[in-house]
Design goal:
Elements lengths: L2 H20 L2 E2 H8 L3 H13 L3 E6 L9 E5 L5 E7 L3 E8 L4 E8 L7 H14 L6 E8 L2 E2 L6 E4 L4 E5 H9 L3 E5 H12 L8 E6 L3 E7 L2 E2 L30 H5 L1 H10 L9 H9 L3 H25 L3 E5 L6 H15 L9 E3 L6 H11 L10 H17 L9
Parallel strand pairs: 4-7, 7-11, 12-15, 15-16
Antiparallel strand pairs: 1-3, 2-3, 4-5, 5-6, 8-9, 9-10, 12-13, 13-14
Helix pairs in contact: 1-3, 2-3, 4-5, 6-12, 9-10, 10-11
Length: 409
């Protein structure tokens, strides 16, 4: 597919996201806020109106000249479910067509159990049953690991202890809905492109720090997945020869040195925290001025900065976005990160901006829901047969409500 079609996919989704966040908006305001030409906005909004996703409202007040028509969302056009899976819990969100989270829930989960996938299906059935009236377009699932294809959804994950688990197939059978499965950081990158600081950029690196260390890459507005969906495994960059064992089976990986469990282990070994204390206690010590705790986070930032500089030199992004549970301690990471990162960049990349986002746990699940919301504009065909089913459900919902009179104010 061409770069132009991928950009169109993102732009139409960005229009929906912006109107959902800001309320009814004129075409001129959309063009200004999204940084594109009025002609391009007119082209995309015309198609979105034809698709039954936008509706023209009353004119806005005029300061002279022709009043502008406002555009609003067709509130009953559809909704999606997003699911974040980690080893010990799952978070599910319901989002509107604009990607805004309507409700969320978190449930305990044992990924290592033989009945894990069945349990997941049961939880999702219950969550879906409590949803709104708008047509449910599908379910997006984000997992920490490799996913062969979004539309197939076979998962390999060392964090979950899963090997060739047919997650997509099982959930489609259990829920009788379109299901798209993707690496959780890739899904997060899609959400950033639609709703976050990646919006308006075509080449982006999204870095997550926390339980693990991952990267999602947008190249020419498309997710860079690699041969088997495993692109972006920056946490498994070899850093220290003969270093600590990583869950991937290697030694001295970045994640084995700066992931949360690694930081907790180091803190316990140094006597900074007790054997039953975790990352919140370590972060609290650093916040209170404990020099040892601050040095531990600063060293983690230094190692991240060195590795990330090499990755930026390799892929040449316009912006780097850092987020995840670990950013709650970013003020301590940054002392080591910033000098190591800037010193490691080649001259042309030294001005690349790094945006650190405040973390909300349901952002992972919102990213998974974005897999569904982006499929109506999936000119690349990444969503495959499941994307076609999502588009069919959207078409049926428009046929069932031809007047689409309700708009999100």
């Amino acid at each position: 597919m061409t770069q132009s079609t991928a950009r169109a996919d993102v732009m139409r989704s960005a229009v929906l996201a912006h109107i959902g966040a800001s309320g009814p908006t004129s075409r001129a305001d959309l063009a200004r806020e999204l940084g594109v030409s009025p002609a391009l906005i007119t082209q995309h909004t015309r198609q979105l109106i034809a698709d039954g996703l936008l509706v023209e409202l009353e004119h806005s007040p005029s300061q002279g000249g022709r009043p502008a028509r406002l555009l609003g969302l067709v509130a009953d056009a559809g909704r999606a479910i997003g699911v974040k899976i980690v080893a010990d819990h799952i978070t599910a969100v319901e989002v509107g067509i604009d990607g805004a989270v309507v409700r969320s829930a978190t449930e305990p989960f044992d990924a290592a159990a033989g009945t894990a996938v069945t349990r997941l299906g049961e939880v999702l059935r219950g969550f879906i049953a409590g949803g709104g009236d708008a047509p449910l377009l599908g379910v997006g699932v984000g997992v920490p690991g490799n996913v062969d294809e979004q539309a197939v959804g076979t998962v390999d994950s060392t964090q979950l202890g899963w090997l060739r688990v047919p997650l997509g197939e099982a959930l489609r059978r259990e829920l009788d809905l379109p299901v798209l499965v993707e690496n959780n950081v890739n899904a997060l990158a899609i959400a950033e492109a639609l709703h976050g600081q990646a919006r308006g950029h075509e080449n982006v690196m999204v870095i997550t720090i926390g339980t693990g260390v991952g990267a999602g890459l947008l190249s020419d507005s498309r997710v860079l997945r690699g041969r088997s969906g495993g692109a972006g495994e920056i946490g498994h960059t070899p850093v220290q020869e003969d270093g600590p064992l990583c869950q991937c089976g290697g030694h001295g990986c970045l994640e084995a040195l700066i992931g949360q469990s690694a930081l907790v282990t180091q803190a316990r070994e140094r006597g900074l925290i007790s054997a039953d204390a975790g990352i919140p206690v370590l972060r609290g010590l650093a916040d209170a001025g404990d020099e040892g705790a601050q040095q531990l986070f600063s060293r983690a930032g230094h190692l991240l900065g060195r590795v990330l500089a090499g990755a930026v030199n390799l892929v040449d992004p316009e912006i780097v976005i850092v987020l995840g549970e670990g950013v709650e301690a970013w003020s301590h990471w940054s002392f080591g990160f910033e000098p190591a990162f800037r010193e490691g960049l080649i001259p042309r990349n030294r001005a690349v901006p790094v945006a650190v986002e405040t973390w909300q746990d349901d952002r992972w699940a919102q990213g998974a829901a974005s897999l569904v919301l982006s499929t109506p504009f999936d000119a690349q065909g990444q969503s495959g047969e499941q994307g076609r089913l999502v588009r069919e459900r959207l078409a049926v919902s428009r046929t069932a409500t031809p007047d689409a009179g309700l708009v999100k104010e």
